[in-house]
Amino acid sequence: MLIRCRRVLTVLAVLSLVSLTGQAFGQQDNTDPLPSWKEGPAKQAIREFVRVTTDRASPKYVSPEQRIATFDQDGTLWVEHPMYTQVMYCLHRVGVLAKKKLEFWKREPFKTVLSGDRRAIAKLPPKDLEEIAAATLSGITVEEFNADVRQWLTTAKHPRWKRPYTELTYLPMREVLSYFRANGFKTYIVTGGGQDFVRVYAEQLYGIPPEQVVGSVGGTKFGYAKDGRPILIKEPKLLLNDNNAGKPESIHMMIGRRPYAAFGNSPGDRQMLEYTGAGDGARLMMLVFHDDVKHEYAYGPAQGLPNTKVGTFPQALYDEAVQRGWSVISMKNDWKRVFSFEK
Amino acid sequence: MLIRCRRVLTVLAVLSLVSLTGQAFGQQDNTDPLPSWKEGPAKQAIREFVRVTTDRASPKYVSPEQRIATFDQDGTLWVEHPMYTQVMYCLHRVGVLAKKKLEFWKREPFKTVLSGDRRAIAKLPPKDLEEIAAATLSGITVEEFNADVRQWLTTAKHPRWKRPYTELTYLPMREVLSYFRANGFKTYIVTGGGQDFVRVYAEQLYGIPPEQVVGSVGGTKFGYAKDGRPILIKEPKLLLNDNNAGKPESIHMMIGRRPYAAFGNSPGDRQMLEYTGAGDGARLMMLVFHDDVKHEYAYGPAQGLPNTKVGTFPQALYDEAVQRGWSVISMKNDWKRVFSFEK
Which of A86, A223, A239, B4 has the highest local Cβ count within 10 Å? Predict the structure, then answer.
């Protein structure tokens, strides 16, 4: 009996040791951490990268504090067509502000937005969109802005799926985020979108806290409210444009380490992937390619797909990916399903 | 025997539960987490703050992901007299660069620096120091800069203690950092000093990783080396001045949450403490007051101490602290010892 008791204790001790070791080194059990991915080169690349960077016996082992992975958002983690979600929010804000700012009804580009003419709105050039963003994302405290975006997200719906934008995240990519984190990686969003905007929902949607969201940054100004309370007011001023070369520059400023993995889907992510790939050891660079018109959208113009102004994927980027050994994720061929609400 | 075996198992299970609970809630055992602090109001304020924000039964409980604490560096975590360490590095760099840039020997303010006349150097106005910083902290890749600072830190010594600057951190403040982290707080440096400079040593000295160092930011430019390799070059351009109002503005940009605790030592930290104190629930605002001429330095001009240009503590700041209920840490009365090399 004593022997049996000792055996039980030994088994318990070994089990708890195994459990602790598993936790410490982020080892996975045998269940597939990427169930929405079809077996193929993309899934294989992700699993192999995680294996070689987290296995202490691997020559490409990366110590936990160095494990940084960066993800673009629009078109990489969630839907960006027919228009970026933040632009939809800004257009909505024009309507709200126009109740007080009556001059909006006479002044372009606000007049066009208020007309509700979707075709005319879709044709607004970047300069006009920037003016709209500056006017609608400023003049309020950071807390007022957060509350307003949060409220809008509960009511706004995507025109195609008639669902909140927050349901339009890509399930396979959320699996990648979880898989990376389970293996000791710190996951960052590095987006061309507004940092304050994405921070409102990133924790709830992706498990990514505000301090791990890097984006385009508008100025804020510290000051005092009438009652003397210190406040931060959003200013109509772009401090950092987190696109193209701005991505590695912001990564250096906000993180201070070179990522080991970077995910994107358009030329705005190119320099981030180049910078990531220029590091030594194992590095993973991946681009999401929208080629599934049935479940989401199909746009290029790479590989003969239709061209687009929103999140374009030109042939030159496709060719660079092939040449540099980056993985192109085909939504059609690499994913079993796109959204968690699909069967 | 079976009964005894069951009892052993029960005891084991209870013990492991206690251990897990202790870990999960960051509970301390009975050893003093702040052994270099004398019993008194400052130590009491820190312990009470940690207790009410981490005890789930407390009405001022703060969920772990919200636990942010920010610390100024120069004069708060390490010695800043007779001159900021980074300025000493810049002066050294002038000498190195002058071997190639012969015009430095004829041009002010470089000529004064190269003269070695400590009195004249100490009198250089901020504009000249900025010009020296811009010239010495730019034109190289971020990796070259890191390597150079790292190398300098191994050889440079403080004129008074004849020890590396890296040994001149305040032991009581390092205990606060550890104590906060053991209780689930994320500790950040928020310094007026150069972000890239402080990041070189913050992990080794304070256990604070690069992504948790916020500081004044010089521009970096993404580009390609002659061999095509993507690189980031430091530019002679100040993007963010992380002093005064710049501190809460940078905290919003880099962290995106209001801190629950903030530590500083001079007017450059005032707005950070005001912004922290404007939040609801328990907030801890503390200022290190240098009044120990024997073990470190004594400077004000608050409370009749001598005035200084480096890390001044004016009476107005002292009065604001008293009025707003911030704690002033007296190095002489609140600390048992300043440095870990003291007996």
Answer: A86
- Of A8, A196, A209, nearest to B5 by CB-CB distance is A8
**pLDDT tens column, A232-288:** 999 999 999 999 999 999 999 999 999 999 999 999 999 999 999 999 999 999 999
pTM: 0.90
Decide if A255 and B210 are in contact by the 8 Å CB cutoff. Answer: yes
Find the chain A residues whose C-beta atoms sit closer than 8 A to any C-beta of B: 1-2, 4-5, 8-9, 12, 16, 65, 142, 186, 195-196, 199, 203, 209-211, 213, 217, 219-223, 229-232, 239, 245, 248-249, 252-257, 271, 274-275, 277-278
Say which amino acid occupies A274: E
DSSP symbol at A69: E
Which residue, chain included where needed, has tokens 């109509």? A236
Contact A149, A96 (CB under 8 A): no
ipTM: 0.90
Using DSSP, how many helices (H) and how many strands (E) does chain A show?
A: 13, 7
**Strand boundaries in chain A, DSSP class E:** 68-71, 186-194, 213-224, 230-240, 261-264, 284-289, 327-330
Provide the pLDDT for residue B51: 98
**Strand-pair partners of B298:** B291
Q: Which residues pair with A317 in a beta bridge?
A: none
Q: What percent of chain A has pLDDT over 90?
A: 86
Distance separating alpha carbons of residues B149 and B81, to the nearest angstrom: 19
Distance from C-alpha of B305 to C-alpha of B201, rounded to nearest angstrom: 31
Helix residue spans in B140-298 (DSSP H): 142-155, 171-182, 195-206, 246-254, 270-277
Spatial distance between the Cα atoms of A114 and B44, rounded to a whole number of angstroms: 58
Residue for token digits 């629930």? B281
What is the structure's pLDDT at B29?
59
Q: What is the DSSP letter of B164?
A: B
Q: How many helices (H) and strands (E) does chain B have?
A: 13, 7
* A279: its two tokens: 């590091």
pLDDT at A30 over 90: no
**3-state class of A48 per DSSP?**
helix
Distance CA(B80)–CA(B87), nearest Å, equals: 10
At residue A34, φ and ψ (nearest 5 deg) are: -125, 60
Contact yes or no for A46/A54 (Cβ under 8 A): no
- CA separation for the pair A107, A238 (Å, rounded): 22
**Is residue A156 exposed (0-12), middle (13-18) or buried (19+ Cβ within 10 Å)?**
middle
SS3 B193: strand
| pLDDT of the residue at B122 | 85
List Cα–Cα distances, A338 to A26, A299, A332, in angstroms: 26, 16, 9
d(CA A92, CA A194) in angstroms, rounded, equals 16
- Cβ-nearest to B249 among A232, A255, A257: A232
CB contact under 8 A, A252 and B232: yes
Sheet with A186-194, side-by-side order of all strands: A230-240, A213-224, A186-194, A68-71, A261-264, A284-289, A327-330
Task: Please tell me which of the candidates A199, A222, A278 has its beta carbon nearest to residue B245.
Answer: A222
Closest listed residue to residue A94, CA positions, set A124, A126, A137: A137
